[in-house]
Amino acid sequence: MPPWLKQLNDDPLPWLLSDDKPAVRHLALRWLLDPSPREPSVLAARRAAMSAQPIASILAAQQPDGHWEKPGPGYATKYRGTVWQLTFLDQLGAVDQAGRQRTLEERVRVQRQAWIDFEQQGAPSKWVTLRACRVLKLASGS
After folding, report:
1. Which helix (H) or strand (E) segment is 5 a member of?
2. Integer angstrom CA distances of residue 130 from 16, 22, 71
3. Residue pLDDT, tens place only, 69-123
4. H-type helices in 12-142, by residue range?
5. Is the dihedral of CA 74, 80, 83, 89 positive or negative?
6. Cα separation, 109 vs 67, whole angstroms
7. Spatial distance between the Cα atoms of 82 and 122, rounded to a whole number of angstroms
């Protein structure tokens, strides 16, 4: 058992690796289990994440000329502008098949709502749990 996992009361990995939130599964594999990026389970998780929420709706909402919400420098409405959307996509691990970060030129699209809105209110958050586990892992040096 990794040192960071010993600091928890229970093992969150089965929950984080379940199929109901493909983007969480993909990042849990990458961040917490350290497999090869070319491992079949990682590639399958990445493909599933790219076509599921919240990434799919983010990718579907970019304007044809490459911006989100409105043209300009990208700092439009907080959480809805181009810069925010690219940040969300980065945090969600949205990558193309070559493993490169998607960019505006690669037609990245974005939903007009923050990814955090996809969580069910009042329920435990897989996103928060995943981030907390990542911080524990990094802090423990494993």
Report:
1. helix 3-6
2. 7, 13, 33
3. 887 766 677 888 877 887 788 788 875 443 334 433 333 333 333 333 445 666 7
4. 13-16, 22-28, 40-50, 55-60, 82-91, 126-140
5. negative
6. 8
7. 29
- Which tokens go with 25? 């599964």
Residue 65, both tokens: 């000329």
Counted residue by residue, the chain has a size of 142
Which residues, other chains included, contact 80 with Cβ-Cβ below 8 Å and sequence gap of 6+? Answer: 68, 69, 112, 113, 114
Coil, helix or strand for 118?
helix
CA distance 45 to 62: 23
How far apart are alpha carbons 38 and 112 in whole angstroms? 32
